[in-house]
Amino acid sequence: MNELLQPSNANLVCPEVGAWTEDKHRLVSLYATLFSKGMKAKWGKRVYAELYAGAGYSRIRGKRKIIPGSPLRALAAEHPFDKYVFCEEIPENLAALKTRVKRHFPVADVSYVEGNCDERVSEILADIPQGSKHKTVLTLCFADPFDIGLKFGTIKALSIRRLDFMVLLAVYSDANRAYKRYVMEDAVKVDEFLGSKTWRDRWRIAVGNGVPFPKFLANEFALSMETLGYLPTPIHRMKKVRSDEKNLPLYYIALFSRHQLAHDFWDNALKYGTDQTKFPWG
Fold first, then answer.
1. Which residue range forms the structural domain that includes residue 28?
2. Which of 101, 110, 128, 259 has the fewest CB atoms within 10 Å, i.e. the most exposed one?
């Protein structure tokens, strides 16, 4: 087994995940690889950021198989990014990630932000180099939350820089299951997720048209991104990830960019992202 797949220290935390996580990492890694290579000659500096970076490794639930997380995969890209920024709320996860990154990529330019990304936006922005006319900077940011707790205000604040986003939209695994609670008039979680307090009016219309709640939320989030100048991202250009046990839908992974070239890369990633694509560590 390649060294990158070996845990740096058996005593470090290694969270358990569902088997479908491999599909997610494969898609995200393929896109990051295409992005870092394709943008290398077009931008002065390329930055990779994660808002829920994790511990670096995870273990497939019910198995002994350990897989590298998206931060290590991004660091191992054939054409590495010039800078990496990892935000993680759980201290044990962040400590493990630091140790693993230091072992495998000791010379990489990596910054770490401990805490909730919604509360650490200023620190994240401070670690992302500010571009200029003569020294351009483009950042790819992956947001991988467990639920729909990511606040749109965070995305909006980060978008003042030249950022492309890959966002996990947990509209099935979280929002659909908690539907009755989230649609209550005094509930604010969906308001904060979409950056809108008027979505219930549109939801009532969607109900009448037979639109499922998860698809409605994914579409509303994409429309919110358009208000920030991002190109349209319709549902059919999002990747739906399903569970392995019952083949139930869990979430969408969606790309948001202001550049058509990024969407061209995304189309290729969607085409090959679930195949057994050969990566530098595989």
1. 3-173+235-270
2. 259
